[in-house]
Specification:
There is one protein chain. The chain is an alpha/beta fold. The protein has a domain of about 190 residues: Rossmann fold (3-Layer(aba) Sandwich), CATH 3.40.50. Strands 3-2-1-4-5-6-11 form a seven-stranded parallel sheet, sandwiched between helices. β1, α1 and β2 form a beta-alpha-beta unit.
Amino acid sequence: MTVAITGGTGFVGQALVDLTVERAIPLRSLARTIPVKQRGVEWIQGDLGNRASLDRLMGDAEYVIHIAGQVRASDPAEFETSNVTGTLNAVEAALGAGVRRFVFVSSLAAREPQLSAYGASKLRAEKIVMASGLDWTIVRPPAIYGPRDKEMLDLFEMATMRVVPMPKKGAASLIHVGDLARLLLALSEGGADVTSRMFEPDDGKPGGWEHRELALAIGASVGTKPWVPRLSEGTMMLAARIDRLLRRDGAKLTPDRVGYMAHPDWVSRADAQPPRSIWTPKIPTRKGLKATARWYRERKWI
C-alpha cells in the first residue's frame, strides 16, 4: 500500500514518518520545504492551497491521512484558509484521484466551536469530510505531547522554574504522539468498525488529568515540584495581551486559545474511544512525560 499524508514535517507528521519508516511502509508526504534528510519518503513540495501538488500527492495512493492545519494564528482568518479551505482542497484532490480511504486529524476543540475560531474551523472541516462521499474516519485528539512538540514546551520550561500556572478549574485528556501515530496508521486500512466514525482517543486515564495534577506530573518529569497558581479567564486574557506585546505574531497564548483553555472539560469521551481490536494506548503518560523532558534536555530546549 501507499500512504499519502499532509503535514509530514509537523509534530504529528514526523511521528507518523518515524513509524512508516520503521515498518517499511511506502509513504508520500506533502511539505512546503522538503527536508534535507528524506528518510526514504517521497516528498511532494507544496501546500494545501496548491491543487497541482495535492494531485501529485494523492496520485495512486490508497490511503490519505490529512494532518496539516493551523493550530494558532494572529488572525482568525488564517484558520479558515488553512483548516477549512485546505481540507476542502485535500478532499477534492482525493476524490479526483480515486483514493479509497481518508483519515482526518481534527481536534477536541471542534466539540465546542463557540469557544474559539480554531475549534469552529475544525468543525467546519469535519463537515466537509463527512459530506465528501469518501470512506472517512475523523480523529479528535486531546492535548498531544511528545518529542518535537513546541505547544506544550512552555509548561516544561515553567516547571523547571518551579511555577506552572493553570486554568482555575477543569481537566483534560492527553495522548502521546507515538500512540496517535499508531492509531492513524491503523485507521488508514479502514473496516466496518471505523468507517464513517469519529474517535476521541486518549492515554487511557479515566476522567483525564485535572490541571494541577498535570502540572505536578510535568514538574516530576523535570525533577521539580512546582507551585501551581490557578488563573481566571480574565487573568489569562491579560497574559495573552502581554504575550502578544512581547512575541507579536509568535505569541503562543492568544485570546483565541484562552477561549478554549478556560473551558473546564477537555476530557475524551469514553464512548468515543477507538475499537480496542485495532488500537490501545501503550505509553503511560508519566513515563512519556519523563521521556519527553529527556528529549528536550538533550537538545537544550529546556
